[in-house]
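Can you give me the bound-state structure? Components:
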Amino acid sequence: MNRALALQARRFGPVNWIGCWSLLRRQFKNGFSDLHFTILGPVIANALYLLLFVIASSSLTTLDPETIVTFIAPGLISFAIAERAFEVSGANLIFDKHERTHMDWVMAPLTPTEKAACFALSSTIGGMVVGSAVALMTLLFVPAEVAHPGALLFFAIATGMMHGLIGTLLGIWAAKWDQYTALHTFVLLPLAFLSGVFAPVASMPETAQTLIAFNPIFYLIDGFRYGATGEASADLRLSVGVAIAVNAGLFAWVHYWLRTGYRLKS
Amino acid sequence: MSLQRTFPQALAPRHYRTVNWVGLQTLYMKEVRRFMTVATQTILAPMVTTLLFLAVFVLALGHAVDRVAGEPYMAFLAPGLIMMAITQNAFANTSSSILISKIQGNIVDLLMPPLTPLERTIGLAGGGLTRGLVVGIATWIAMVPFVPVSLAHPGFILFHAVMASLLMSLVGVLAGVWAEKFDHMAAITNFIVTPAAFLSGTFYSAERLPPFWQGVAHANPLFYMIDGFRYGFIGHADGSLTAGVLVLVGANAFLLWLTYRLFATGYHLKA
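Here's the bound-state model for the whole set.
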């Protein structure tokens, strides 16, 4: 009697919570096994960037270093969230495909929505952990300041989720590490660097301003900075709109690829 | 019997004189092919990253900087960034080569062939040196359209590029020999190599620093590489050129000797 019960298919409601939880744990296990490295690395690198800007601006210009650091710090935090979020899903997926262990979750009784949500969520959390560590580090340079906690949290989550979804797409698409790192270095990194992380858009030449207006990362960083300092270059409603639209679009794209099994099921 | 008649040469040990040129060339070419096969990652990627650094600093500070050492900020920054790319890539080439070989277990391919410790040192460092110079040239070419580059003293450019690339290749060899895991290498890169490159006067003129940071800069060998290299382009140096040349020659000689000793004793390589 007992044995017969055990052999029956497990039932679950509309959402397979246990499955989701398992996939999340799997993502974390792979993405957080070397915490000291994944957290300390970005913290130190970003501390160096800030130190560099302080020294460079105070020795070369008459600008107030504090103004510059106050401007750059939120951008760097946002950037750290993005990089980590991207890596949690992207690197995991490539590694999985390389080792052919992706079948573990491709075959699991999870709907595409559940899978996509788990990838996005694990990336967001991973990004937020690193982002928080970098944020704590910036306190060495600038006083703590959170003008609009709600906006800060919203854009932090939107940034993590967007890069998690991009990482998922790249991870699914790329057949080799080469392709993955190439797209990261040649597409994502330039988009992030040239998005107003380091300089106010208003101070840039007009062509650059027009180009940046088409860069979704600009709106995420701008919104995040608004949450921290209370000042934004773009209309806040536009930034929120872009954040939601881009994330929804990317989620649908990931969902489509997971549903059709593109590059995952042969 | 027939075998012996067909391949009499192949079965005899190969003879060479003082230097095993074939072996040295093989090791050097292996090191060069290692990065050339993934040129997108090893040459193009550093080139793009360096251009991004240039763009970021010029966008963030350029409008507020009048002139540094009599030059527009971009012309001052460019040589420093090229040197940063050279050093980081020279270091990456040798360190990753040795560490990956150790982790994969094919380090015996380096240790068992009939190469003397000096030949090993030169073959490995030569690969790193080549990578540094190739990346330096690629980065320089990429910058030409944006930056007004002058060539005040080409000899200084060449000398400092070669010395810096060699120095960081040798540091990379030492790091690769010492490290046992990728974590160790990441630690060396994060805590030593990158900070040394960032705080070396790439982005600002050491002359205008407060005394403390000036002292930090002068204690840093990378400062002399960048300073002398930049002198080759813009004709202005922050520190003493003679001191720089002496530091670089001395450091390279010492590192060559140290690497030679490590290979001779088999430290961390032979159980």
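A couple of observations. The radius of gyration of chain B is 21 Å. The interface with chain A takes residues 38, 40-41, 44-45, 48-49, 52, 55-57, 59-61, 63-65, 68, 73, 183, 186-187, 190-191, 194-195, 198-199, 203-205, 208-210, 213 of chain B (CB under 8 Å).
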